[in-house]
Specification:
The chain is α/β, with parallel strands linked by helices. It is built from five helices and six strands.
């Protein structure tokens, strides 16, 4: 079953699109929220391999949604892609936008949104994200969703105040779909996380210059 597409579909990029350059002086959402992950205790080579896997899966999903043949190079990539394909076949979403980077010039924050969809038989525009994580980090996922929502709002993109984070299955089974709702409390905490990041960053710069 093909996916209906509307809105501005982004041009296909290389498999390393998620390592793209950003405007100088901005911080990525992932860097702000790093303290909510356990990545510090994982071998950097393992992290690099996981990041590459995620890039390949995202690139395959983008190819699929643009009507092109997904390029996959190993069994793990195929499993995650087939998991997406099962979700797509079940949900029949309309893809409104894919892989678009947004900026907040006031907070100096940036993030790349995986996709905005319109669910079948719905007028809602919904922010979604694909994950290849073995375990769901709900604290991180919900905060990431909230900051992406904030970036969309700042840029005049209206989506409903709930988000679908799709945890793909490595064996190609239907993914787990985690639904998060926007709350004023979470939004305030996330904005404060960004401000705290810049406060700490400024302090580190001051300490570096004084040494």
């Amino acid at each position: 079953m093909s996916i209906a597409k509307e809105g501005i579909m982004q041009p296909k990029e290389s498999v390393h699109h998620r390592a793209d350059s950003i405007k100088p002086g901005y911080v990525r959402v992932s860097h702000v929220l790093k303290k909510y992950t356990s990545f510090a205790y994982i071998d950097p080579e393992v992290l690099d391999a996981k990041a590459y896997l995620g890039d390949c899966v995202h690139a395959a999903i983008t190819d699929d949604c643009q009507g092109e043949f997904p390029m996959l190079t190993d069994k793990k990539q195929v499993g995650y892609y087939l998991s997406f394909d099962k979700w797509k076949e079940k949900m029949c979403p309309t893809f409104y936008q894919m892989e678009q980077r947004y900026y907040d010039d006031e907070l100096k924050l940036t993030g790349e949104v995986d996709a905005i969809i319109r669910p079948m038989r719905s007028k809602d525009l919904v922010l979604i994200d694909y994950k290849c994580s073995a375990q769901a980090n709900h604290d991180y996922f919900s905060r990431q969703a909230t900051l992406y929502y904030h970036l969309l709002q700042v840029n005049g993109v209206q989506v409903v105040p709930y988000f679908l984070w799709i945890q793909l299955d490595k064996n190609g089974k239907l993914p787990k779909v985690h639904k998060y709702y926007l709350t004023d409390k979470m939004l305030a905490e996330c904005i404060q996380d960004v401000k705290n990041y810049w406060k700490e960053h400024k302090q580190l710069d001051c300490n570096s210059q004084s040494n």
